[in-house]
Amino acid sequence: MTEVLEEFSKLLDPKSGKPMLDRTVLIANTSNMPVAAREASIYTGITIAEYFRDMGYHVAILADSTSRWAEALREISGRLEEMPAEEGFPAYLPSRLAEFYERAGYMQCLGGAEGSVTIIGAVSPQGGDFSEPVTQNTKRFIRTFWALDRSLAYARHFPAINWITSYSEYFPMLEPWYQENFGADFTKYRSKISALLQEESKLLEIVKLIGSDVLPDDQKLIVESAKVVRLGFLQQNAYNDKDTYVPIEKQLKMMKVMIHLYEKSQEVIAKNIPVSQIKNTGLFDEVIRVKYEVPNDDLSLLDQLIVKIDDTLNKLIEENQT
After folding, report:
1. CA 161, CA 178: separation in Å to the nearest integer?
2. pTM, 2 dp
3. Residues 49, 55, 57, 61: what is their CA dihedral angle, to the nearest 10 degrees?
4. How far apart, in whole angstroms, are the C-alpha atoms of residue 70 and residue 118?
5. Where are the alpha helices (DSSP H) in 66-132?
6. Are 189 and 255 in contact (CB under 8 A)?
7. CA 1 to chain centre
C-alpha cells in the first residue's frame, strides 16, 4: 500500500495532464485486516462509486481482488457454521457476486446529468485455475473477460492480455455505433486481425514441434504479420507519450496499414517470391514502429506508409520478374 501511495502520486492522466491521484479513491483491502473489514471493502468501494455517479460522473471501480473478498466470505461463513458448498465457499456466493456486478450501469441523474459505474473485477484464482467457483460464477454474470497471461508478462508484453482466451460480448451491440462513426472498415479490420491471430496460434503449435523452416511461405507470412499486430498494435508502452493514449482514429488507420501490408504481401508470395525477401525490405519493422513515430494528431503519415508499401512491393515483384 505504501508503494501504491508513493508511485501512484507521480503518475499523470494522459488525457488531462493532471495527477491520477486527483480523481482516484483508494480503499485498502489487505490480508492482515479483520475478516469483516475485508468483506466490507468491496461494498464500500461500489457505494463510493455510486455516490460520484449520482453527481454526474463516469466512474470506473477496480476490485482487486474479488478472490480475496470471496475467501473472507468463506471464512465468515465457516465461523457462522453455515453449510459449505463447492470448495468450502458459501452456497450464496453466486448471488453475492451477481448483486455486486448488477450495480454497474448507466443512468440519468435527477438533476439531468448523466453518470455511470463501470466495474472491473480482478479474479486471482490459486494456480491460475479458471475452473474454481469464483472465476466460474463471475463469468456467469459478466460479458467481458480479460485473461492475463503469465508468459506474456514474463516476455514484457503489456498489457499481458491473452487475445485468444479473452472475449467481449458487447461488440455486436456496439457495432452499429462503430459503423456510424468510423464506417464499416473498423469491423472488417477487427475481424481480419482476430482471424490472423487465431491462425497464428494454430501455426505456433506446429512450429514448436518441427520448427518454422518447414512452413510454406504463405504460412510464414501469417506468423510474420501476426507478429506485427502483436508488437505494433496489441503491445502498449505506458511510458511513451504517443503510445500511452491512442485515439480510436489512429487505431483504425494502424489496423488498415497492417492488413494492407498482409494482403499486399500475399500478392507477392503468389508470384513465388519468398517471404524472406519481403522481410528484407524492412516494411514489417517499419509498421511496428508506427505507434511511436506517428503523432496522434497527424495521421497523414499512415496514408503515406500505405503508398510506400505498394511502391516497395511492386518494385520487388518487378525485380523478380526481370
Report:
1. 23
2. 0.86
3. 0
4. 20
5. 66-79, 93-101
6. yes
7. 25
